[in-house]
Amino acid sequence: MNPPSDPRRYDLEALRARVRDERGGRVDDSIPQLAEADPDLVAIALVLPDGTARTSTGCDVTFSLQSAVKPFLFALALLDTDGEALDRVGIEPTGEAFDALKLESDTGRPPNPMVNAGALLTASLVDGSDAEARADRIARGLSAFAGRTLDVDDDVAHNEHLLGDRNHALAHLMRAEGTLTPSADDAVAVYARACATLVDTETLAVMGATLAFGGLNPRTGERVVPRRVARDVVSVMATCGVYDGSGRWMRAVGIPAKSSVSGAIVLSAPGRLGAATVSPPLDEQGTSVRGRIMSEALSDDLAIHSFEVG
Length: 310
Ligand code: GLN
Description:
With about 300 residues, the protein is an alpha+beta fold.
C-alpha cells in the first residue's frame, strides 16, 4: 500500500507492482523499432524542486521521445521567435487523433502544438537557416531541458521520415495553406529527428521538471526558457497534451502531461515536481495504459491534482 505521503518517501516499487499485471493496450507498430518495445517494461521517475530524482526499477531503459518532445518543441519555438510562435499555431484542443489531417478552417494553422501538425510547425520555427541547423538547435535545446547531451537514434529518425506518410501529408497541407515555410520534406525530417531523441525515464522527468519549475532546470540550475514560456507550454499541455483524451486525463489525473507512442508520459506539476512514466502498451487515444493508472494514483496519493483543494 502507498499511503498519502511525501514524494521523498513515496514507494515507487509499490506503484509499479500495482500496474504490472495490467494487460490492456497495444504496443505501437508504426515503425519496427517501436513495435519491438518490451510490453512488460514499467518505470516511473520523479524529480523534485532541488533536482533530486526518485527512480523505480526500469528507469535505465532508453526509448525515443516521440510525441513527448512536443511541449519542448513548442517551448523552443516560443523562445526563438520571441513569442511569435503563438500567432503561427492555435492552442485549442481538437477532440481528434494526434495525426488527424486537419488544420484550422479559417487560418490554415495547425490546431495546437501537441498534435502532429502543430509539432511539425513548431519544429520549423526554431532558429536555423536550414533543416540540419534546425535539427542541431533542437538537439541542443532538448539537451538543456534534460541537463545532459541527448543522442538521436538515426534508424528511428530514418524510418519515421520514410514511413510517416500522414506527417508528409500534413506538411504538404500546411505548405498549400501557406502556414509552413520550409519544404514539406525538410519539416518532416526535422520533426522525425526530434521524435527519435533518446531518453530514459529519469531524464524525461528532469525535462518535465524544467517546465514545472518555470523553465529553470533543477538539475543544472540553467534557465532554459523564461517563466512565461514555461507557463504557456504547461497550459497547453493541460488542455491538449493527451489529444482527444485530454478532458478525461485532466479530471482524473489533473497534472499537465504529454503522452507519446513510445509509451512514455511526461508530467509537469507546477512548482511541485516533474515526473515521467514509461510502459509501451497504449489505449485508443495513444496513452500508455499503465502510465495513466500510475499517474492517477500518483496524483491521488501525493494530492497533486491541480484542482485539489489543499
Ligand atoms: N513520431 C510519431 C509520429 O509523428 C509521434 C506520434 C506520437 O507519439 N503520438 O507519428
